[in-house]
Amino acid sequence: MARMSAFQRLVTKYQRDVDFLIIYIEEAHPSDGWVTTDSPYSIPKHQSLEDRVSAARVLQQGAPSCALVLDTMANSSSSAYGAYFERLYVIQSGIIMYQGGRGPDGYQVSELRTWLERYDEQLHSGQPRPV
């Protein structure tokens, strides 16, 4: 996940009011596929769930202190949420409250931060939550 340090700051700031979850999907730039020169990791395309588990462990070392789960090998979550390559969501009581743009260009941690700031203000002011 790009911009992990900015995301980590959000997790740290809002973890008392918000549950964060990372769903690790298929590798966007596998070392045996569409490689980028700025990738800090060399992770080949996942051929099995065990491959995905191993790759997720690498991510978890630098990931925020939040839950990390894996997408299925059929990429069900990625397909359902249009997450390929990265995407940010806020889901409350089964309702999508915030949907960020598709990564990498539409993936804006700053937009999520703005949404969370408004949510936090309303949560602590006793006003209804944004829809």
TrEMBL record:
Q: Which UniProt key words apply to this protein?
A: Oxidoreductase, Selenocysteine, Thyroid hormones biosynthesis
A Gene Ontology biological process annotation?
Answer: hormone biosynthetic process
One Pfam family per UniProt: T4_deiodinase
Residues of the signal peptide: none
Its transmembrane ranges are none
Its domain of life? Eukaryota
Query: Annotated Gene Ontology MF terms?
Result: thyroxine 5'-deiodinase activity
The record's annotation in InterPro entries points to: Iodothyronine_deiodinase
Q: What does this protein do?
A: Responsible for the deiodination of T4 (3,5,3',5'-tetraiodothyronine).
Q: Which family does it belong to?
A: Belongs to the iodothyronine deiodinase family.
Q: What is this protein called?
A: Iodothyronine deiodinase
